[in-house]
Structures are given as C-alpha cells and as structure tokens.
From TrEMBL:
Enzyme kind, highest EC tier: oxidoreductase
Record-given protein name: Histidinol dehydrogenase
Active site: 317-318
The species this protein was found in: Silvibacterium dinghuense
Cofactor(s) listed: Zn(2+)
GO BP annotations, alphabetical order: L-histidine biosynthetic process
GO cellular component: cytoplasm
Reactions catalysed: L-histidinol + 2 NAD(+) + H2O = L-histidine + 2 NADH + 3 H(+)
Family, similarity comment: Belongs to the histidinol dehydrogenase family.
Annotated binding of Zn(2+), by residue: 252, 255, 348, 407
Primary role: Catalyzes the sequential NAD-dependent oxidations of L-histidinol to L-histidinaldehyde and then to L-histidine.
Length: 424
C-alpha cells in the first residue's frame, strides 16, 4: 500500500479525488442496460427468457421460478454445520431488525388535536442476490429478513446462478418466490412485471454494473434502496495491531478489483508495518492484490483530529476505530467496527446489522439497509371542536398569506359552523 503524509502534494491531490469520488462503472454500461430494460418492459417473458438464455445461460426449457421442492432439497443437501451457520446469522439479523422497527404513536400538540403516525409495510419487494465472483447467501438473509420483520407480504428473490447455500437460505426463511434471473433483465422484470413475474414496489440488494445501471433506470417507476458501488473500508487507528488492520483491509479489498482500502494513522511506524503486512497477505489473493494496487492507501496524518476529520469527510462504507470513546467523533459511516476483536467480516455475516451499505460518500446522508426501507410512515391528525377553535385561525392566516383562498375557506367554513353551534 502507498504510504503518504497528508502534508505532501501527492496526498492532498489524492484526498481531493477521494472526497469527490463516485463510481462510474455503471454509467459506461447504461446504454446497453437501457436496451435490456426497455426490451423486457415491452416484450415481457419472451424477451426476459431470451436474455436469461444469453446472459444467465439458463436452458430454454428450464422454468424461471425455482420450485419449493428444489429449495427444500437444497436445504437438505446443505451440510449441518452450514445450516447452523445460516440459522445463527438469520437469528441475529432478525433480532437487530426487530430493534429497528418503528412504532405507531400519537400525541396531542394542543388540547383537542391528536397527531401521530402509523407504520405500514410495502406490498412487495424484490431482493437481488449476486452470484458472480462469489455466491452470497448472506445477501439474501440481509435483504429478505428486514422485509419480513417489516411485514412485507410478498418477498421475491432473484439470482442468476444461485449457490446451494443461497437456495438453502431461501428455504430457511420461507421464501417461496425465487427466480433464476440476474442482471439488468432481472431488474426490469421486477420493476415492470412480466407474464411470469408480477412487479414489485421496491428493489433492494447490490449487483454488478448492469444491475446498478438498471436500478437507476427504473428508479422513477419502482423504488430502489441505493446505487451500490465498489466496497470501501477505512481503518482509523493508532492502537490496532498490524495483522488485524491489514487483514481487514485485505478482506474488504477481495470483494472487487475496484474496492477502496484506506488506513489513517498518526503513527508512521505503524503505517510502515501495516503496509508490509498487507503486501504479504495479498500474495495469495489476486482480487485483493489488484484492488490494493489500484486503491490501497495509507495516510499518515499530523494529528488525531485531522485523521478524524478526514474519516468523516470520506464517509466510508465500513469503518474501524480503536475504542468506544472514538464513536463520539464519528459522523459519517455506513457501519462502524470498534476495537481489535471486531473483524469487519463479522459484520458481513453474523453480527446482525445489515451489510448492504452506502458507498461513494453516500453515508453522509443515509445508513445501511434497514427495516425502514420496507415500511411507509403514514401521518394522521384528528381535530375536535376545541382543537379546531385553537389552531383554525392560524391555519386561515397562513392560507391567506399564501393566496390559497380555497384552503382558507375549508377551515373558515368549519370555524363558522362551530361559532353558530352547529358542530359544537
């Protein structure tokens, strides 16, 4: 990994690039993704099957939907140890999601007026589960379980070549609608529906450049969670061990050749040792080695305050810090890992918090996938005569100030009736 002091011109230039970073991989494939999306939208199953055959290598006579029997068979064929692992991960993810779930509430801002919110689930969601470079059964758990906790009645999973473990996870969760579909054509089918696959209200889950481009293309017609870019990790530490820091950097770097791996420290000695440790660890990991060569950076800062400010400016997807006390200065991060024992991959799998996280600095404005992504908050209000008399005149005043006479009249007609004793 390249080691630079933040005082150097090269470091300042590189930091400037990082602060304005955005993944443009999906932009390059947008024209092709648009042709696919438009084709499926207009042609339905006929076009969907053509792309499934061409791109997913699905035999022409194979059904798009995976049967419940096949899901059950996958569970039964999965080794007992892996079944227990899936159950452990699912239990923790579900418990965390249940803690996140918002509640109905009411309160009275003034006597005679009751306001509040009601929480309602979305009607149908589509969970995209990648199966390219690595099979990701964990992504099915992370996307489907919060939807289940939210109460979504219809949960659809799609994956072009789902691994045995992914199918087993679907059986574990009771997912009954699972399709062998991937890429932009799967996103189009979820967003617009076909003869076989009814459309959903929202699409969640990460994918390749074509998936990301397609999600953006359909986002005005079907809600999406976020546009996921390459994985990011920042470790901000003066007290971590070289092996722990380096192993986390390599772990996240192996996701993608474009992954971003950054270590921030005030200690030049620690920076040097971590750099050497990373070099050793990527020798047997080609993807991580490529990512580190492209985007592996160590910045030696002049102070802890500078390291902290830079961390928040980067707004990383994954962040490791030294202690609970450090959490107080963290403002922007997708998911935070505290201390030497908190290996970042534990968060990818079994901790409970979601691993579908904001990238490209999006952590400045949102967190990871959660139950909140699968519910609607409906606000409610109820007035008695007393409440109308109390707040009505203020409403009339604002309406008239805005020149909306119809608004004012809707309130005044009730105030007049109240004054005449008709609705007292």
């Amino acid at each position: 990994m390249k080691v630079m002091t933040t005082r150097s011109a090269a470091a300042k230039r590189r930091i400037g690039e990082l602060l304005t970073r955005r993944s443009d991989t999906w932009e390059r494939v947008t024209p092709a993704a648009k042709r696919i999306v438009d084709g499926v939208r207009k042609g339905g199953d006929r076009v969907l099957r053509r792309y499934a055959s061409q791109l997913d290598k699905l035999p022409s006579q194979s059904p798009l939907q995976i049967s419940a029997d096949e899901l059950k068979a996958a569970w039964e064929a999965t080794p007992v140890e892996m079944r227990r692992t899936l159950e452990t991960a699912a239990k923790n993810i579900r418990a965390f999601a249940q803690k996140q779930k918002p509640k109905d509430w009411d309160f009275a801002p003034v006597p005679g007026v009751t306001t509040g919110q009601r929480v309602r689930p979305l009607g149908a969601v589509g969970c995209y589960v990648p199966s390219g470079r690595y099979p990701l059964p964990s992504t099915l758990l992370m996307t489907a379980i919060p939807a289940q906790v939210a109460g979504v009645p219809r949960i659809v999973a799609v994956s072009p070549k789902p691994a045995l473990e992914t199918l087993a996870a679907a059986h574990l969760l009771g997912i009954t609608e699972f399709y062998r579909l991937g890429g932009a054509h799967a996103i189009a089918a979820l967003a617009y529906g076909t003869e076989t696959l009814a459309k959903v209200d929202k699409i969640v889950g990460p994918g390749n450049a074509y998936v990301t481009a397609a999600k953006k293309l359909v986002s005005f017609d079907c809600a999406i969670d976020m546009l996921a870019g390459p994985t990011e990790i920042v470790v901000t530490s003066d007290a971590g061990t070289p092996a722990g820091i380096a192993s986390d950097l390599v772990a996240q770097a192996e996701h993608d050749p474009d992954a971003l791996a950054i270590f921030l420290t005030t200690r030049a000695d620690l920076a040097s040792v971590v750099s050497a440790e990373v070099k050793q660890r990527v020798k047997s990991n080609a993807t991580a080695r490529e990512a580190i060569q492209r985007n592996g950076l160590i910045f030696v800062t002049k102070s802890q305050e500078e390291a902290r400010d830079l961390t928040n400016a980067l707004a990383p997807e994954h962040l490791t810090i030294d202690s609970e006390e450090d959490l107080a200065w963290v403002e922007n991060a997708g998911s935070v890992f505290i201390g030497e024992h908190s290996a970042q991959p534990l968060g990818d799998y079994v901790s409970g918090p979601n691993h579908t996280l904001p990238t490209g600095g999006l952590a400045r404005v949102r967190g990871g996938l959660s139950v909140m992504d699968f519910v609607k908050l409906i606000t409610v209000q109820s007035y008695t005569a007393k409440g109308l008399a109390k707040l009505g005149p203020a409403g009339v005043s604002l309406a008239k100030a805005e020149g909306l006479t119809g608004h004012a009249d809707a309130i005044e007609v009730r105030l007049k009736a109240l004054a005449e004793g008709k609705n007292a």
